[in-house]
Amino acid sequence: MANTTHIGLDQVRQQLRQPRTQLKGRQVLPEARSEVQALIGMPPANGHRRDLLIEHLHKLNDHFHGLFERHIVALAAEMRLSVVEVFEVASFYHHFEILKDDEVAPRITVRVCDSLSCSLAGSDSLLRQLQNDLLDVNVVPVPCLGRCEQAPAAQVGQQAVAFATAQDVSRLVAQNSTQPLALPQALRFDDYKNAGGYQLALQVAAGLKDHESVIQCLESSGLRGLGGAGFPAGRKWRIVRSQPGPRLMAVNIDEGEPGTFKDRTCLEADPHRFLEGVLIAASVVGCEAVYLYLRDEYHEARVLLTEELAALKLNPPCALPRIELRRGAGAYICGEESAMIESIEGKRGEPRMRPPYIAEVGLFGRPTLEHNFETLFWVRELIEQGAESFASQGRHGRKGLRRFSVSGRVKRPGVKLAPAGITLRELVDEYCGGMAEGHTLYAYLPGGASGGILPERLADVPLDFDTLQPHGCFIGSAAVMVLSQHDSAREAALNVMRFFAHESCGQCTPCRVGTEKAALLMDSPVWDADTLQDLAQVMGDASICGLGQAAPNPIRCVLDYFPHEVGAEVKA
């Protein structure tokens, strides 16, 4: 045993303490590191912020038309993260194209919406034609682009194409026209301020407008969250304000619900009315920082908001909280408040288990006021005109006003500001010019993809919170999609179920497996009603978040109201 080598424990410990000369696994290429540094900048003294990972991925993806493996490795090194951690975040989001180093990135990516409103307008045939005609670019079907009133909608790079035709898209591709369009109709900072804008925010920030009176105004008006959940706004402000500081604020402008486009429409027209609502909320609740989470498909709105935030910060009407604009990356699930917070933190957008609720433990572990864009868009008007003015609106015993995103078989689709409680029949006749030529009302989706489907005979039910639940539906974000006698409720339900299957984050089995299995079963001309009902029950009861819990609604509605379409028995 004379040749036995003995290594002492102290020697092993000393070796473990020595810093590695290089990372384990794949090594960083100097050229790739330089390319990454040129886009994200050199690291500050204490390193790159972890929560900016997705923003840095966007810079790489935009510049190189994809995320090459060499850049993922270099970014991980620059941010002092593991390659696996960067890869698992990048691979979660649909808009990040991960490529091997020997692959060629697509010159242009053309996206064609295949969600319900665009499908009704012929997006399927548009997609096929473009895939046949444009062989040198990447043409892909995508979920809702948030332009349902402009169906069929497409995007060439980052440029939106309304009422898209193959000729229009081909022309933009030939011209390499891929940048976002200008928004000349938007009300800019100087014009907004000259018309009296930000005076209310100044009064609130200076204490000239009592904070308690502001909250009481919201409570008296009955304003509820307008992103889908409908939680009373005033109560939410009061709850978060009662939590120990520092407090934060997160604003959801990631309206990915098929059929919804009201936030985009308002933002593109009047961004500062929204920003003034943000400042008022931050002052009253005491939020030291605000994060605006904007869906990635809204490139034009992002350019506008970036410019107008810069103008606001250059000439602030009052002390501003820190405001950061964050860019989504094509994940519907990030419309769920806790998933959005995970994404803002630079992680995969997977919903959190609750409790704790984000009002107590939210963004970066701090109490967080989370709001939808439209809720904040209402704040200035409510406080200036008074709660009674808002509450006095409404029909059929309901109070307030709602912005309805209306699309489908109507003459004039678009965002309609109408009384809460208006019926679908009234909404179509009075605000949309009636049904489109040659179409009669057959069915409608009152709350986007997740809100269920109702037949024409229930078109006189008031559209508001709590009025649709007895019929197996809900209003959600008030995304109304109208079907005619030429359409099929079964096909509509299948379309939205495929959307849910595509957008499930995969975290919980009932949603991940259930949506896929449901879509397969729903593709049959004759439905296995018992199996689908069982599947709907499991998804609704056991899914972590609202996606899986609401996904069964279209199944149940078709079986209840349109059994003749799927060979099922009529409900007693």
Q: Top keywords for this entry?
A:
572 residues; alpha/beta; 5-stranded mixed sheet; 4-stranded mixed sheet; 15 strands; 13% strand; globular
Could you walk me through the main structural features you see in this protein, from its secondary elements to its overall organization?
The chain has helices spanning 9-17, 30-40, 53-64, 69-79, 83-90, 116-120, 123-133, 166-174, 189-194, 199-205, 211-221, 233-241, 262-269, 271-285, 299-314, 337-344, 373-377, 379-385, 387-391, 424-431, 489-503, 509-522, 529-542, 546-550, 553-561, and strands spanning 67-68, 98-99, 109-113, 138-142, 154-156, 159-161, 247-253, 287-294, 322-327, 368-372, 401-408, 414-419, 441-449, 454-455, 479-484. It is built from 25 helices and 15 strands. Strand 11 and strand 12 form a beta hairpin. The model has no long low-confidence stretch (mean pLDDT 95). Strands 12-11-15-13-14 form a 5-stranded mixed sheet, with helices on both faces. Strands 4-3-5-6 form a 4-stranded mixed sheet, covered by helices on one side. Strands 9-8-7-10 form a 4-stranded parallel sheet, with helices on both faces. Helix content is 42%, strand content 13%. Helix 11 runs antiparallel to helix 12 and helix 21 runs antiparallel to helix 22 (509-522). With 572 residues, it is an alpha/beta fold.
